[in-house]
Amino acid sequence: MILMDEKDKKIQGTIKAKLIHNFERFLAEGSIVVLSNFGVAENSGNYRIINHPCKLNFYHTTTVKKIEVFDGPVYGFGFVKFHDINNKKIGDEFAIDVIGDVVSCGNMDVYDRNGKEGKRINFEMQDLELISKSGDSSSQQFSQLSCQTIYSMRDEFLVHTKRMSVDEISEVCKELKCVVLGTIKSIKEEDGWTLRDILRSTTPCSEEKLFGGKVVVFGGDFRQILPVIPKGSRHDIVNSSLNSSYIWDHCTVLKLTINMRLQVGAQNDDSDQTKQFADWILKIGNGTLGEPNDGRAMIEISGDLLINETCDPVSSIISFTYPNIFDNVSDSNYFQDRAILAPTYEVVDTINEHMLLMMPTEETVYFSSDSICESEEITTFDRSLFSLEYLNSLRFSGVPNHKLALKVGVPIMLLRNIDQANGLCNGTRLQVEKLGKHVIQAKIITGTNAGMITLIPRMNLTPSDKRIPFKIKRKQFPVCVCFAMTINKSQGQSLSRVGLFLPRPVFTHGQLYVAISRVKSKDGLKVLVCDANGKTMSTTTNVVYKEVLQKM
């Protein structure tokens, strides 16, 4: 079970089977309780459901008191001077956590929050910055997600990465022979400097060597979608790619020539069809269809891949991708390797809402709690401009909407890294089993942890969207319905059945290539192309920035 305090901090609780009857009447979902005489232990083993280093153990001496309102101390800790700790003026019975060094402190000011007056002091802290960029990712297999979604520097990296001192990292580096970075198409200069600086402390001669003289293996396909640069031009996107970096001059390029995804799904009697399909995918990735062109070309889709239904094309692509869906709602394997792909979130939301209405189970709706982050220096007048209704209306990439509608049996996708060791990563797909008030029970349906039951709590999510002038905090379940997903989100997936829905053309490099190359066989792909009036078409746009491929 998961226990949560008023600040949304969560910790796992465990009770031995023979003691459950002692506590079950006190531990109803949503109840407020006071615990005493419990134990704290390391949160490890096969039954870890949240990413917290500790867990609470219930014993026969543990007491649980149910209350209506908690009026005790909320935080349970206080700030003390580091000097007092260092001089052992603090008793040994206290647990101490050094979170940084206060380098400056401002005056106390008064602020208004929801009509109530509060006081605060702004101070600046210097982070110790004892971090490592070598973490344990979930084990990979061919059908699982690309590691970019499992080990993301952008997705709360400092929160989810184990802290290590420079000495500890240096010990690791002594044994380090090679660093492997998978599905990478860009790298920032500081990543190389970090490793170089660490190695310099033990091996001075590594200071002038790229990556400290260690061998680094980059794996990636430049035909796929390039790094996303908000409001960036074609020139900006191309220049952000790895092969535009000074690092590229020091790389030795080794090319793979066999489409292993199609080899896995190929039958013995269709080798010619598989080869022709693989060649067609390569031509789309290289931008050689529809030549001559400057990177944007109209191409013809083969008739055997098209959906030509004119009455209700959306229902047609749903019928192809999810045949006999009502007979397979309880079968998690049914949703494991099929999806509808589309270029934009608007199209994806439309399909997901359509399919959610089709599901026979009862719908549960969750509304988020949205607010402006307290750290933002926004005046009372400015806050009045951003009403709660306005915050609720905002939609962000990688963050669930204010209104989240779910049903039992529906496939969902995780939007945050929760527990990487147990496969609960950004992009993991699950199937809903139970919908509670504070948690969602779901079964993992992809990756090496497929079949494992997990509990997903609400989380405070802060989008990194630069288009708004402040940081917003949205408390919501970090999931979305995933009958359909964007082409960008599908990158790294291997699927047996894909319905590609293009009511509008792809708009950036590699999107069409990524979409058609997700399938394990030609028979598993159908494409629906529509014009602005909803009429089906046989041609669509392919976008390829050829200058990226010419550098290979």
From TrEMBL:
GO biological process assignments? DNA recombination; DNA repair; telomere maintenance
Q: Name one Pfam family in it.
A: PIF1
UniProt family annotation: Belongs to the helicase family.
Q: Which residues form the Replication protein A 70 kDa DNA-binding subunit B/D first OB fold domain?
A: 1-66
**Keyword presence, Cell inner membrane:** no
This protein is called what?
Answer: ATP-dependent DNA helicase
Cofactor list: Mg(2+)
EC number assigned by the record: 5.6.2.3
All residue ranges annotated as the DNA helicase Pif1-like 2B domain in the record: 389-435
Species for this entry: Centaurea solstitialis
Key word S-adenosyl-L-methionine present: no
Keyword entries, A-Z: ATP-binding, DNA damage, DNA recombination, DNA repair, Helicase, Hydrolase, Nucleotide-binding
Q: Which reaction does it catalyse?
A: ATP + H2O = ADP + phosphate + H(+)
InterPro entries xrefs: DNA_helicase_pif1-like_DEAD, NA-bd_OB-fold, P-loop_NTPase, Pif1-like_2B_dom, RFA1B/D_OB_1st
GO MF entries: 5'-3' DNA helicase activity; ATP binding; hydrolase activity
Q: Which domain of life is it from?
A: Eukaryota
Residues of the DNA helicase Pif1-like DEAD-box helicase domain: 193-293
